[in-house]
Design brief:
There is one protein chain. This protein is of the alpha/beta class. The chain folds into three domains: 18-79 and 310-532, Zn peptidases (Aminopeptidase, 3-Layer(aba) Sandwich), CATH 3.40.630.10; 82-306, Glucose Oxidase, domain 1; 543-667, Transcription Elongation Factor S-II, Chain A, CATH 1.20.930.40. Helices cover 38% and strands 19% of the residues. It contains 23 helices and 19 strands. The strands form four sheets. Strands 1, 2, 4, 5, 6, 8, 9, 10, 11, 12, 13, 16 and 17 form a 13-stranded mixed sheet that branches. Helix 6 (172-181) links the parallel strand 5 (162-166) and strand 6 (186-190). The chain is globular and about 85 Å long. It starts with a helix and ends with a helix.
Length: 671
């Protein structure tokens, strides 16, 4: 979405409307080309660090090169993990025999990818703790903090048990961390048919879009960003690294073992659990067994052994140099690596990125040059913990801090109908303008903006969590960012991270005509009151924040008026003096987001520097406004001490200071 708006600003002023119209026209777009890209990228499984993913990187380079876009590969040597051995055995109450789970996803009759299915990495959790444990089973619903409160209210103690949790509400790494905090010794996570199998009322893939009973959602349980052995600096061939003990002390990798399992296996385990009956919203689909809380009498023996390696990963970087401001970067990014075939996650976004590259290449042949430099970035090892993008940001932090205008991300670009966007607020208007100019791929009689506004009461989500590659740009450096998709949020399609996320699923259910991919390329290429209620009667003074927000409002109004004056005069197109004035104003807008960062970062998460938007403490996929204040409030409510509430006030002052800094940046004058 945003890139389309930036293209409008980047193009040569006297002919910008011509090239802008060309970019989104049918003459340059090609759903057959996007379909070809996606089929090529997903013909084999291509997990990070594999030869197959290196071949996919070569394909991206070849498309950039054929589009006359200079490109290079930025390689890093990073710590990855793969499964060496794993087993899961259920000891049932007598007289039932024990159950040994195969932990295998089944192909189907006529599966065109059956011949390469054995190349898929066995189901596992990346960075899971290697250990063998045996214990009674406890059911913990989605494994959220509030779920453990419910268990406690029901008199269920999970300490010393292996917990059974279902995917769907929070990041799997936080499921494992919450279990560890509650005293569990192991975790099994399954994809409930209620959430991923259509409620058990009908078929599944390939006849329907739903996850088959043997389908397993794999993924990482690492709660950090970047290579866990090089926190804060880039991973090279010869670089400083933390050892395993130091990594574990950092608190971002799990200290208990875990495994993902299928819906079928999850229900088998559930049948072995006794104890109190779970409440209604903890139950499964209509034909599922009755869900009980445990613990036991079923006992699980869980064994996992990982293989730790230092692997080479490759980021592909394409560069289109700007004609007027080559030292200013607009960055478009998507990752390439997938747990299996990756038709939705992430290669729907990769196909859109390649479509953008080809369109921009065609425009260059017609004489177009962008105003600012455009970087097209294809990351590796995102699935492990946003590693490729984070290492690149850490290596280029200083130059990005001074030169990057915005970062525009597409991960699961297409997973179904419906437009979804999350962004930092200063990009909202650009996104609106871009979506007004692109037709809805599912209803050509209206624009994406018209269908978007008619179907959603809340247009913009915010980027607080670590769900995709925007995180390092926004959270570490303070670069304005956006993430777009068709089909809802990142985990909103049923075959997410499973064997069945392949070209066939995309062709049948995700985007049958590949029109949403074309639209994604067009679109992509082109909370204080609640806080006040939460801490009422706690003697916390919020006036510093209110005062700084008023100053920010005044500064924003002033710079917006200055922008309108420049646009109205139109003299900046030809007069060098006014052109410099435009650059100076844009620099203030660019640097304002940086001002919301603090060098000390969030408490306990110092790598995260942004104090306005950040990850939720107990859900890395979640977004939290004023994360430092929110965390301090939750801690104070738990400790009930004067010192803890004093820390809340300190966090209020910290937020008020960065807001004031942003105001000063917008004004552009020292005090």
């Amino acid at each position: 979405v945003i890139a389309s708006s930036y293209l409008f600003l980047l193009m040569t002023p006297t002919r910008k409307s011509t090239y802008h119209s060309l970019f989104i026209s049918n003459s340059l777009s090609d759903n057959a080309s996007i379909s070809h890209h996606l089929r090529t990228l997903t013909r084999r499984p291509h997990v990070a660090g594999s030869q197959a993913n290196a071949e996919a990187a070569s394909y991206v380079v070849s498309v950039f090169t054929s589009s006359n876009i200079p490109s290079h590969v930025a390689s890093y040597e990073v710590a990855l993990t793969y499964p060496f051995s794993r087993s899961l055995v259920l000891t049932n109450p007598p007289p039932q025999p024990p159950t040994t789970f195969t932990l295998h996803q089944e192909t189907y009759e006529g599966d065109p990818y059956a011949d390469v299915a054995d190349e898929v990495v066995p189901t596992f959790h990346a960075y899971a703790n290697s250990a063998t444990v045996a214990a009674p089973v406890c059911y913990v619903n989605y494994g959220r903090v509030e779920d453990y409160f419910t268990l406690k209210e029901n008199g269920v103690n999970v300490s010393g048990t292996i917990v059974l949790a279902r995917h769907g509400k929070i990041y799997r790494g936080d499921i494992v961390k919450n279990a560890y905090d509650a005293g569990a010794v192991g975790v099994v996570i399954y994809s409930d048919r209620k959430d991923y199998g259509g409620g058990g009322e009908g078929g599944w893939f390939p006849e329907e879009k739903w996850l088959p009973p043997s389908g397993v959602q794999v993924g990482s349980v690492y709660r950090g960003l970047g290579d866990p052995t090089t926190p804060g600096w880039a991973s090279g061939d010869e670089c400083e690294r933390l050892n395993k003990d130091e990594v574990e002390k950092g608190g971002e990798v799990p200290l208990i073992p875990s495994l993902p399992v299928s819906a079928a296996d999850g229900e088998k385990i559930m049948r072995s659990v006794g104890g109190p009956v779970a409440e209604d919203d903890w139950q499964g689909s209509k034909d599922a067994p009755v869900y009980r809380l445990g613990p036991g009498p079923g006992i699980l023996n869980l064994s996992y052994m990982g293989q730790d390696v230092i692997a080479t990963i490759q980021n592909v970087i394409g560069v289109i140099e700007g004609a007027e401001e080559p030292d200013r970067f607009v960055i478009l990014g998507n990752h390439r690596d997938a747990w299996t075939f990756g038709a939705v996650d992430p290669n729907s976004g990769t196909a859109a990125l390649l479509e953008i590259a080809q369109r921009l290449g065609k425009l260059q042949k017609r004489g177009w040059r962008p105003r600012r430099t455009i970087l097209l970035c294809n990351w590796e090892a995102e699935e492990y913990g946003l590693i490729g993008s984070t290492e690149w940001v850490e290596e280029n932090r200083e130059i990005l801090s001074s030169r990057a205008v915005a970062y525009l991300n597409a991960d699961c670009a297409v997973g179904g109908p419906g437009f979804n966007v999350r962004a930092t607020p200063q990009l909202d208007e650009l996104i609106k303008r871009a979506t007004q100019q692109v037709k809805d791929p599912d209803n050509s009689s209206q624009s994406i903006y018209e269908s978007w506004t008619s179907s959603s009461s809340s247009l913009f989500g915010r980027l607080g969590g670590g769900g995709s590659d925007y995180a390092s740009f926004l959270q570490h450096v303070g670069i304005p960012a956006a993430d777009i998709a068709f089909g809802g949020d990142i985990a909103g399609y049923p075959v997410y991270h499973s064997l069945y996320d392949d070209f066939v699923w995309m062709e049948k259910f995700g985007d049958p005509m590949f029109q949403r991919h074309v639209a994604a390329a067009s679109v992509w290429g082109l909370s204080v009151k609640n806080l006040e209620d939460e801490i009422s009667n706690k003697d916390i003074n919020l006036s510093p924040i209110f005062k700084s927000i008023k100053e920010l409002e005044k500064a924003a109004i002033k710079i917006n008026n200055q922008r309108r004056e420049i646009e109205a005069s139109k003299s900046w197109i030809t007069r060098k003096k006014d052109h410099l004035k435009v650059r100076e104003l844009n620099d203030r807008l660019m640097m304002a987001e940086r001002a919301f960062t603090d060098r000390d970062g969030l408490f306990g998460m110092s790598w995260h520097k942004h104090l306005i938007y950040g990850p939720s403490k107990h859900n890395d996929y979640g977004s939290q406004s004023f994360p430092g204040i929110d965390d301090a409030v939750k801690m104070a409510e738990n400790l009930h001490s004067a010192e803890s509430w004093h820390r809340v006030q300190h966090e209020v002052w910290r937020v008020s200071r960065v807001i004031k800094h942003a105001s000063l940046v917008l004004v552009g004058q020292p005090t």
